[in-house]
Amino acid sequence: MSEQHPDLPDEQAHIDHAYDCLERSRKEAWKLRDLSEPGRGGTLQARYERDVFDEALIKRLIDLDLGDDALVFGRIDRRAESLNGIETFHIGRLAVANEHHEPVVVDWRAPVAEPFYRATGKDAMGLVRRRHFAVHGRKLLGIEDELFGEDHLGIGSDGTLGINVGGDTSIRGYSTLIAALERGRTGQLGDIVATIQGEQDQIIRSPQAGVLVVQGGPGTGKTVVALHRAAYLLYTYRFPLEDQGVLVIGPNRVFLRYIERVLPSLGEAGVELAVLADLVPDVTWGGEDSALAARVKGDVRMVDVLEKAVTDRERPLREDLIVPFRTGYLRLRAEESLRIVRAARRRYRRHNAARKFVEGEVWSALAATSRIGDVSPDA
Questions:
Q1: CA nearest to 75, candidates 94, 97, 90
Q2: What are residue 275's phi and psi, to 5 degrees?
Q3: With a threshold of 0.85, does the pTM exceed it?
């Protein structure tokens, strides 16, 4: 049986203190909400300000409710000019401060937490130690230390050998990443924020501007990165994004239920979730395709088939079109349809945009034949 890490009691005490601070923040939020509820009178502006304040308190209470998720999952020690040369930060799901507003837990999305995910043996990012916690709720089960620097090699406090990576870092204790991998896939997104890797974190913290596409095979962490990316953007760019909102589109309701469960554990709850059908609610269909039909329609070769079908429908008339109208007829001549098609091709690159233009031109041409008396089917 391996020896208990010597710092485990102290770290457990810090975790307990963090939960006490979290509970104090929760009680303060409830107290403020109770004070804001009585007396719904006053001016329209006063009622509006009260509603805005109440909504902010509700969001705060939601953010402070972690459920069964662990509050703290790691710690970093970095070099500093003061504090005996070492500065310590505990990393967790959300920021927690004590009654003096001093940080007890740092939000994983904060810039100071970046080395927890990104530091390597070649680039320690100022760290001397990175510590991972194995936590179940409020109980600390184990500690894993990664020590940076040539002096930190040898046998860890739990009796395991330090692992030298590139000659200038070592790992002591059982790896939390290895433990997460050995748990295997359950079909659900588990406790993932504590095991994000450096390459994933680099994508998550990419600049806001532009389109970010994450590609990879099944099980490579695409969904994990996307969710952490959304949570990171909401934290870092909260002011501009609060008015715009964030929409997560999933392939089906089952997937969205997973997302709905995971995002609050990353510190965010105010995200809109939708499937593609929600974006076009007025579109209806008669029924579902068979498995064979769905497979054919989903085949990549259908791209060429659809492209040829669209091209075929963009050609002008081969002969005049006669349309019965009231007691006579309307005529669209073939040469007129050629003019319309050519004009559409000059103006528009996309079929759907050109289609609206063609519809308008066709109706105008038919109306013109009515005005000039070109109503005979044999003219």
A1: 90
A2: -100, 170
A3: no
